[in-house]
Structure formats: structure tokens, C-alpha cells
Amino acid sequence: MTSGSSKGLEGTATPVGFAHHDHGTCVADGLAAAETRCEKKNLRFTPVRRKVLEILLQEHRALGAYTILDRLRDEGFGSQPPVAYRALDFLVAHGLAHKIERLNAFIACAHPGENHAPAFMICRLCDSVAEAHSVVAKGALGTAARAIGFRIERTVVEAEGVCPNCAEKAPEKVSV
Amino acid sequence: MTSGSSKGLEGTATPVGFAHHDHGTCVADGLAAAETRCEKKNLRFTPVRRKVLEILLQEHRALGAYTILDRLRDEGFGSQPPVAYRALDFLVAHGLAHKIERLNAFIACAHPGENHAPAFMICRLCDSVAEAHSVVAKGALGTAARAIGFRIERTVVEAEGVCPNCAEKAPEKVSV
DNA sequence: ATGAGGAATGTAACGTTATACAATCACATG
DNA sequence: CATGTGATTGTATAACGTTACATTCCTCAT
Q1: Using CA of residue B13, residue B15, residue B21, residue B25, what is the dihedral sign?
Q2: In CA terms, which of A74, A87, A170, B19 is 20 to 30 Å from A94?
Q3: pLDDT for A130-148, tens place per residue?
């Protein structure tokens, strides 16, 4: 969310993550939305799961499972890998978080509630990640897949590069 | 390559990997092309690098670094992880192989020589991988990136699903 | 209420993937 | 031949992820 109140940007291709926004409401809203969603679907939004989502929402970056695990330990939760991985699996399975394959790391979903095939932009300088929507089914890959009879079930679309903020701050590092 | 002799498919969206072809020439051609390419660019196509590419070319699947390492050991090369990773880094850096992020595994490039942003189709039943071309710059993600000033340097586009061969053999497993 | 069954959590050990850093080698130059 | 430079190799370790199993917590039918 770019802010607590709607700014008319939702539903467009405008990604979250590179823009300034009210972070407090951003976290609170995300948690509230998740809670509502879990109630509706009869899912158990347990303390660990809630905490992990909160940790993820506090960043617009992807966090490694072990970073999350460290924070869980600090908060008095279990400290073994499965604790973090199970919560993450739950969040990912129900569309509340995504895995960034390129980074082996996780990020809170920026568009919860929407049925989507997410696409990400990863800044290699500041590590921030923005989420947009991919429409692979309509792109070249979708065409190729249809042509040969490959049935797409899930897609990974991740772009690595330099975000607008970093491009401005460090123009000399902008070119590859 | 679908075969040693041109079948008029190169340059189209037709991916390699799900179709039958002459595998012997496919490996030999790949190695020859790599050799030529390295000579032209003054790169050292050392025995380990050559062997790793040969191993990859023998499959149209992605292989993990440690699988490759095992085969290297069998052939009398070093058996420590960096041996495999360094060769793979070289191949990837020079477009002779690609990493499939979703699988943490590697595959020989199906279109060496072409300057490309690869896209992959991964069959979850038989594990085969086909390479097509992505044109992210022209898709929704490219549009979103341009709109906010994100500069894309590299893309990861991977579709997971069921290949035509498996869909035919095991139709009951085709639906998610 | 209560106890059976399933879901979630905690803990330990293990397996896989990847990189950091030090040492060595090979070659071009003075 | 000595030496500087860059590529390559060796060794150790870090980071990521899974399996196995015991325990606790919910919930729901009795």
C-alpha cells in the first residue's frame, strides 16, 4: 500500500516499494487485511505467522529465512529453521507473501487479496523490491507455451536493476 | 539445437527441449560452437569448463551444481564445490549456460551466440526444461519499469507447469 | 465435560547450495 | 632472470533448506 487512504493507484501497474509512504499504517493495514482474509477462509492466523508477516511488512525488501528466524528468536519464538519456514510456507501458500527466487528470500505481498501472478523489480544497489503484476499468459512466453502445448501453472518473473532512487543518488553506478 | 542440420526453426519462438532430435550432434555442435565463441572472444575454454558444458549438453534438464560435481569427480577433475561453481559461473557469464533460479540448477544454453534474455518452461513431471526468449522490455513489467524509472539490467522469467509429452502420458495429473 | 484426531509448534540433526579467502600458477614485461 | 599482474586452484566455512520426531493446542463429536 502506498498509504492508508486510497490514492487511486491500486489496480494500475504502479508498483509499491520505491515510493515514500506512511509506513506505520502500511504495516498495520497489511496485518489487518491478512487477519480478515484468514478469518474468511477459516485459516489460523497464529502468533508466529502474524509475527513473520509483521517482520516482512516492516521492510520493502526481501528477507532471508534466517534473518526472519533471528528476529523470531528475539521475540521469544522458537529458533529452529522449521519455525520460520513453516510460517513462510503458510504465508506464501495463501498469497500473503512471495518468495523471490533470485534472492532466496521472502517479501510481504503488496497486493493481498488480489488473485495474481506477481512480478518483481529488485534494486541491486539498495536491495529494495517492488511488486507489479505480470501477465505472462499474454506475453511472448505465453505464446510460445500455447504453440507447443505447455501448460503454465505458475510463473517466476523477476527483473534485476537499479531503482529510480538509487539511479539518482549514484548515477555512475547505473550502467552495467 | 533441434538437430545438426537447420530445420528452419531457429529464430522462432519454438523452444528446444520437448522435441525429439539427434542428441549426439546436439552435444557435439554445442561444444564446437562454444569453442569457436571462446576463441573469438579470447576466453580460455579450459578442460573443466568444457567438461561441464558437455555434461549440461547431454541433458535437456537443469542439473544441480553438486550433480555436476559428482560427474566431474568421476572424470578425474577436482571434487570441491568451487570447481563446479567456477566453471558454471564462467559458462553463465558468457552466455553458454543459464541458471534456473527456481530449481537452483543449471542448463546449457539452447541459443548460444544470440544476445538474449532467456525464458524457461519447466515441466514439474519430467523435469525437462525448454528455453524460449522473453521480451520483458515489451511486456507489462517493462511498461511498469519505464513508468517509474526502474532500469532493468537482467531478467528471470520461468514458467512451471506440464510439458506436452507429460500432458499426453498422464492427463490426470495435468490439472493443479 | 471429555477424549479422539488433526493441525501447529518446538527441537535436534542433517543435507544442499554457495562464497570467502588464502595459496599457487602462468605469462608478459623490464 | 626477476617480478608484477591476473587467472586459477585449494581449503574452509557460511547460507539456505529439509527431515524426523516429540509435544502442545484446537476442535468437534460424543
Answers
A1: positive
A2: A74
A3: 998 777 666 778 888 999 9
